[in-house]
């Protein structure tokens, strides 16, 4: 038998997957999950990693780039970050609540999705759940007839923004928390949220967990939760304590300089069969230490038994706290700080989830809105014109004009794929251009492959390195000192397989 054909791998994908056999080569996707065989060589493992790709829902999620978190609830009125579940619903009364103001503010800031804390750890529900009285129906707001989830859903639909739902598994109010009955309670509430409010694009579970009123710690039925979501909202990604999206590991707003979306998902020997079965059903959460500095290097891959596409989400608040506190009105992050966060999250192969907490009126505060507006204007002005547009691009061993257009055409879905792992790409600009920002993107539907790259500019007849980086992934943004040139060179110094490059851009930042 041919040696290549001897290397067979079982392809296990999330929901809707099938089992198939693939040859080990540099062509063809392996889906978003692959087993590593004991017989695999180092070369074969790296090759597999290069061909793990996002699911359709993961790719759609990554393309959003920027999303909003709205922490709002009973904590807003008790001036706390974590409630204890004993709060009086009578204190909840956002008399000027305007969900359309939330959505318009977020949309104007460039957000593509709004994530609402439908229930935080205190157990207070922003919709009239029929499974508890600890909700808006017991509050004076709209005489107990209001539904914030519904108002936000309708506003999102009106303005073309996606809806996300945060539902805390930890519930400090529920009397059945810490028992098997609580899993029924949680699934019932999850079902309400995923059937009554239209399309939900993301479901967000955090890992906070504590003892309930009965002194028992809850054992969550995660696979049951995931299966419920897959059934009711099959296009939704499940984030953080879920199988589709991982936490970056901090709440600072800063991602890793080297951010791999393909990471090991190791299991203990006794768990391998169960984990594989769950993966096929779309209910397997990779066991990843999200806070580790190194998640996806070659060294990590070589000690793993399975690889999974598990991209990074960076969450951070525009204020020191996650919920609104009046004494933080003058502590909203500056435009300069938010720009730094943007380059360090969206610009490092992650998605940015920026928290903007509505105040006790039920409005996004004027200070937050003003900063967001200026931030968006600065980003738009900086990235308005790609100075590499219509440049003449020459690819090593592939000089065709059609290929060059794909690299600078402003269309992510078109791309050029190198024949080898370390191509050199020359970009001849239309005249001398002055710039200090660079964007480069891989077409991740083919895989994430680039391990190291550099960009040079020809200055005074000599090539000068102006910036360099490690991973690219969906998007890499780099800042550097101002340079003027009409000729650039992008060199891929190391890659796991022949990279697929989608977009290249250079820009001049406005004053920050």
How much helix is in the residues?
10-25%
Shape label: globular
Strand content: 15-25%
Structural class, by secondary structure, is alpha/beta
Described by strand count, sense and barrel closure, the largest sheet is: 8 strands, parallel
Strand order of the largest sheet: 6-5-4-3-2-11-10-7
Count of strand segments: 18
The radius of gyration is 24 Å
Distance between the termini: 62 Å
Please count the helical segments: 13
Stretches where pLDDT falls below 50 for ≥5 residues?
1-26, 268-281
Mean pLDDT: 90
Q: Can you describe what's shown?
A:
By secondary structure, this protein is α/β, with parallel strands linked by helices. It is 24% helix and 24% strand. It has an 8-stranded parallel beta sheet. Strands 12, 13, 14, 15, 16, 17 and 18 form a 7-stranded antiparallel beta sheet that branches. The protein has a 3-stranded antiparallel beta sheet with strand order 1-9-8, with helices on one face. A hairpin with a 2-residue loop joins strand 15 and strand 16.
